[in-house]
Amino acid sequence: METVLESSSQHIVHSISMNHVQNMTNFDPGRAIVETLSTIGPQVARQWMRYNNQTVADKVPAEMLHLIDPHWYHFPPMNPLWHKILGLVMIVLGIMGWCGNGVVVYVFLLTPSLRTPSNLLVVNLAFSDFLMMMIMSPPMVINCYFETWVLGTLMCDVYAMVGSLCGCASIWTMTAIALDRYNVIVKGMSGTPFTIKKAILEILLIWLFGFVWSILPMVGWNRYVPEGNMTSCGTDYLTKEWLAKSYILVYSVFVYYIPLFTIIYSYYHIVSTVAAHEKAMRDQAKKMNVASLRSGDNQAASAEAKLAKVALTTISLWFMAWTPYLVINYMGVFNAPNITPLFTIWGSLFAKANAIYNPIVYGISHPKYRAALKEKLPFLVCGSTEQPASNAPAPPPANTDAASTNTADAKA
């Protein structure tokens, strides 16, 4: 038995030795190097770039690297000063957004005279902007401190989804406000009454519409990825798949072009209607041999000029807020090589700044809101809260939230 075992052991050792010799004989150094590099090469290169601080994606956590487009590896790290400036700006915008929109919601909801159908749209706009700044500002400040996205893949999806949802809700709420003013001023008594139920239904539809568009990238139509500055997340506009690119193109139609042209159309006809009304009053004054049918024309600008300013301000601020982000996305979709990490900062910054001046344009400029604000928070009121008196009928004021409600109630 021992002789058999010893013979078997020697045979096995001999076989292993022969195989080893044969393998050494067939050893190809070049092939071994290729196999080694193909296996661990990307990991070594990635670590080398991270340790040598060569690209803007240096500090991105390993679990996020699959979301980084190769385009960003062509750019060196951003100057840390930019991260500090962006973080500081986001702190300021966050505080202003919370306070401004929070005060608008607080005053409108606690003042019975302001609880009107049209003002529900203003409250919804303030709530949307408040929610956006509440959820998006702190994460961006944290990421600016670490100079990269450190909150993980899930939070990247949540961050981008909330930005898309609140942005869509704000855009279409502004569109609904413009259509309400168009309904009151242009259509007048022939317009459809705007009731509380209709306002609530519009608000629900706006949020449902925004939710559908914001959830689509999470279920396969495009995706959410870190943007070039690596401190915020958004849609993947650098993808090479046209199915994913089509999401951005279709999204821009329904959440940019249609609302923009609707707002322009509404305010164009509003200004035209008020201008025609003013001209008719001037012609009537000439027939009556009087200077004007109004009192106080010398103290205040004409309703036509005021309304034109409001329309121009509204459209200009809307265009300034959302166009930079659209341009960045389109540059990515159509493979523009000059899109840089620093350039991507301005799109998200301008879009978030929209939450700051919306309370001013739609809330603080509201005469009755200013009066209520003086009663509840007088230290926040700047200027007079009294409206100039008029002895004759006037066209609806530039900020027609209250006027639209009164007209709707009269027709209902």
Q: What do these coordinates show?
A:
Helix content is 70%, strand content 1%. The protein is built from eleven helices and two strands. A two-stranded antiparallel sheet has the order 1-2. Strand 1 and strand 2 form a beta hairpin. The longest helix is centred in the middle third of the chain and has 46 residues. The N terminus and C terminus are likely disordered.
What characteristic shape results from the CA principal axes?
elongated
Task: State Rg.
Answer: 31 Å
How far apart are the termini?
110 Å
Major beta sheet summary? 2 strands, antiparallel
User: Approximately what portion of the residues adopt beta-strand conformation?
Assistant: under 5%
User: Which spans of ≥5 residues are poorly predicted at pLDDT below 50?
Assistant: 1-6, 11-25, 32-51, 296-301, 388-412
Mean pLDDT: 77
| SS field, number of helical segments | 11
